[in-house]
Amino acid sequence: MTHQSLHEIAQSLRSGAIRASSLAAASNAAYDASEPRLNAYKHWAGAQMTQQAEAVDVLLDAGSDTGPLMGIPVSVKDLYGVPNMPVFAGTDAALPARWQAAGPVVQAVMGQLGMVCGKTHTVEFAYGGMGTNAHWGAPVNPWSAMGAPRAPGGSSAGAGVSLAQGTALVALGTDTAGSVRVPAALTGQCALQTSRGRWSREGIVPLSPSLDSPGILCRTVEDLAYAFGAIDRAKPMAAQGTPVSGLRIGIIGNTVWDGADASIAQSTRDALGMLERKGAVLADITLPHLETALEIFGLGGLAAVELRSFMEMNFPERIARLDPMVRARVETADQVTAIEYLRRASVLAGAALDAVRVFDEVDVLITPTVAISAPPLADLVEPGAYRQANMMTLRNTAFVNLFGWCALSMPSGLDHNGIPVGLQMIAPARHEEALLGMALGVEAVIGRAPELLGRAPLAPHVA
Of 226-230, 295-299, 330-334, which range is least confident? Predict the structure, then answer.
């Protein structure tokens, strides 16, 4: 699909230089060329997209403009309700039809005539960071070597793959502990996790109402800013990024580098060095209460109890049929007392109030998004190996949700396995506009993902 930015594509659609039907045809061609190998989608809506594209072209020819996402192919994580498209939430059977009702985020896309191309695979009930699914199989990371499939990251597993595949230009996901940032990092995309409560969770199957946040994935930070502004509509996004010169960057020193792959650490430090040479002010900081938050996360946090409660009230018969990697954690929720759940919530709330003071000294925090390379899928079959990889994959992202902040991930290079490395930028709650502005400035220095990384080895060759 075209390498133009979303803003350029939108302009070209309105000038007639690009047709929505051409974008739909390219999306369908990319799907046909790679989907059996990559397995990004639970439900493909190519025929409906083609019909919608023809209607969009007619409207554009008549001078009608329904919004910034008009005619843009958008993939949607299979937790979101989309009318007339089944919702499985990663489970072994479709949920009742009432879950197909669109909430505000999907309504924002569809109301602008953004073209929903399909529903992407998710970890069952979004409870996992590797992207695996015992019922439907894991999407394959497009950066895998041929014949050696690696994890795509999760839980929005198919979202990042859909962008690398070329079937979508925007992907909707959700993030409870890193579920848009992790797949973006491991597949070479960019992702924004919105602050808790910034966007409505209505119309989305929940994992943890206390922590869930809708999020978006795009090919570049520039595209993220465009898509965020289109969906949020609270205030227009500035076209220019925040200058890097004088930007106060806090480099978290405790925990986030422990056990990090050497090539990932080096890629992150190389990017920080580039920023420093452009005038950014780097400061090593210790993030208060990080270890306390991660200890609670390791015990199941709030999510295990909240998912168990949701299932008991809605789908008790499905608990025994859960993916074994999910069921093991859901079943442990029986051992958590109400007192313990409330203790965890109280400790996290207090920790967040104290930890946010770090932003009095810095404008943004930076860490590697994921400290390890995407593991081969074959290495995740054994439960112990899965648990270890899952915790390491989510460690650097989970505390952002636990503290209620916002964050994004953008590529900084490739690791020793040829897998993309994510650079995570973190800001306080409700600072998405400022975060995107800073990230635009960073992207201008370290490079945009398509030029920085090149083409994924398993991505289709489609004109």
Answer: 330-334
Span 371-377, average pLDDT: 98
Give the start-to-end residue ranges of the domains of the chain.
6-453
- Candidate list 42, 77, 210, 267, residue with the active-site label: 77
CB 57 within 8 Å of CB 23: no
pLDDT at 357 over 60: yes
Residue 363: closest CA among 439, 443, 267, 421: 439
Average pLDDT, the chain: 96
Active-site annotation holder among 5, 34, 75, 179 = 179
User: 146 falls in which pLDDT band (50, 70, 90)?
Assistant: confident
346 is annotated as an active-site residue = no
Look at the block and give the residue holding tokens 């800013």: 225
Query: For this structure, is 278 an active site residue?
Result: no
pLDDT at 54: 98
| Tens of pLDDT, residues 32-61 | 999 999 999 999 999 999 999 999 999 999
179 is a catalytic site residue: yes
- 6-453 CATH, one of 3.30.497.10, 3.90.1300.10, 3.90.550.10, 3.40.50.150: 3.90.1300.10
Catalytic residue among 21, 34, 75, 155: 155
